[in-house]
Each structure stands twice: as C-alpha cells, then as structure tokens.
Amino acid sequence: MKNILVADSGATKTDWAIGTQRFTTQGISPIHQDDDTILAILREELLPRIAGITVDAVHFYGSGVRPEQEERLAGLLKSLPLSPSKRGGTLLVGSDLLGAARALLGHEEGIACILGTGANSGLYDGNNIVQNTPPLGYILGDEGSGAVLGRLLLNGLYKGRLPSALRQAFEEEMGLTLSEVIDHVYRQPMPSRWLASLSPFVHRHLDVPEVEQMVTDNFRAFLRLNIAPYRRPDLPVNAVGSIAYYYRPQLQQAAEAEGCQLGRILKSPIDSLAV
What is the pTM of this model? Predict the structure, then answer.
C-alpha cells in the first residue's frame, strides 16, 4: 500500500494524515506567507512528524491555493527531502474547495461547499471544480460562513433586532463592550476570524427564536446567492466545515425552504481524503 501524505490547510492550521497517523501544524497560506515562512513550517513542524516514513505521494489542498499559487507550492514541496517527485512519485497541489469536493463526493458529480470561518462552493464533475460562484469574502459576500454569522449577531444585538436580554448576556458572557467590539472588527488583525469565533455564543442561544431564524436566514442567503446559480436542483448540496456540522438542523431547514436537497456533511475532510 502506498503512503500518501494528505494535507488540508487553512490560514490557522493544517491537518495532515498519512496512513493511520493524524497531526496538525501551523496553517500554510500562500497569500499571506512568503516562501521562507512556509518552508520553515514544513521543515520544523512536518518533517519531524514523518521521520523514517517513505512518502509515495503528497496531496496538498489549501485555502488560497489558486492556479497561480499551485506551481509555487509544488516547488516548495519538491525541495523537501520527502518529495516523492524525486523517486517518480506523485505530487498534487489544489484548492481547499477541490479537497472538500473529493472528500465529499469521491469521483461522483455534485455540489461541494465549505462552511467554516469563510464560505465557498463549487460544481464538481467528479475530477475538478468546473463552476464556482465567487464567495467574495466576509465584507462583500461569504454568506453562510461563521464570519457572516458573527457579523449578523453583532448587527442584530446593537441595532435592536435581537432581544435586549441577549445583548446583556452577550456582553456578560464575552466580557465585551460595544467599543471593544468595534476595536476587534475595525482595528485588530484578522477580523473575519474573530467574528467567526462568536459562533459558540450563537450556538448556545439557539433556543432564542430570533437567533435560530438568523442562522437559518444566513444559510438561505448562501443557497440562494451561491448555489442557485449552478442551476442544478437535481444535485444534493454537500458541505464540510464546523458551521455546516454544528448547525446542520438549521442548514436542513434552509435547504427545504430554498428547494434544495441536503447531502453529506463532514466536520473536516481529512479522514475522507486519507482513505
């Protein structure tokens, strides 16, 4: 049996799998990191974990990996002592959306989505993503994501669309004031990640009807604006990511309301990719 090293990488962390082993390193982001930073992560965090293992293939799927970044990342991976390309093995670099599609669908046609801190979706032909609605990020888009969920929560709390008692609970539980919220969103780094970090508060308060409706509406916007353009109501909507996983009942409600079928939901793609 071949030893295939599989990576599912985001900006925060990279999940790795080879055989039955699972481990995590820092995230690898070709958009935000230079070559030296990425190589340092690979050499200092990855190589010690697989010392003594012969790697026959590497499949790396990452956030921010677009066609123009694939060659760059492939070159960095080829420079490592583990590189299978030096022995005639295979090296594959692709987007996290392609990884999600392969984890969810294998070689079957379908719709694959990522619903985590950010959101993305694609129409998959069994081998490649053949159509993609641009997610546009949490300011211009990212409907269905944790970041947008956090944004909707704050908007509802401070504009009075959510119960005043919930605002009091939020400030007490999170230890935040309005001025501190503004600071996190507009002055601190990585605001989308911070907004998504508010999801556990939302989940704890799903018993508040307005909160559950907010979650369902976030998913409905995702389906309406990102999935409907594929014009494939015959295909189920499949998703990976913590938001899809923990809010599956609300995602199911949204799918029914928008006339969609809900398919497979995975918290993380790594185990399916490692099969």
Answer: 0.86
